[in-house]
Amino acid sequence: MNETSGTCCIICGQLKDMGIHIVTEFICEACEFEIVRTDVKDEKYPFFVHQLKQIWVQNNV
Ligand SMILES: [Zn+2]
């Protein structure tokens, strides 16, 4: 077991082992769950959208 391994989640910024990779970015399963259950009317939703947009911006320069 290597506890120092992990990938930096673009949403929460923490190193996590479990999650999904979207293109070159990583979203931990906790944040993925948050995004999925967040309603578009929720005040957190624009934040998630903003974070996710960075993926597309980085890959469309
Ligand atoms: Zn996260």
Describe this protein's structure.
By secondary structure, the chain is α+β, with helices and mostly antiparallel strands. The chain has helices spanning 29-37, 45-58, and strands at residues 7-8, 15-16, 19-22, 25-28. The strands form two sheets. The protein has a two-stranded antiparallel sheet. Strands 3-4 form a two-stranded antiparallel sheet. The mean pLDDT is 87. The site of zinc ion has 8 residues, from helix 1.
Shape: flat
Strand order across the biggest sheet?
Answer: 1-2
The low-confidence runs, each spanning 5 or more residues with pLDDT under 50, are: none
The helical percent reads 25-40%
Tally of domains: 1
Termini Cα gap = 38 Å
Question: What integer value in Å does the Rg equal?
Answer: 12 Å
Query: Which class of secondary structure composition applies to the elements?
Result: alpha+beta
Whole-number mean pLDDT:
87
Q: How many H/I helical runs?
A: 2
Bound molecules: zinc ion
- What summary fits the major beta sheet? 2 strands, antiparallel
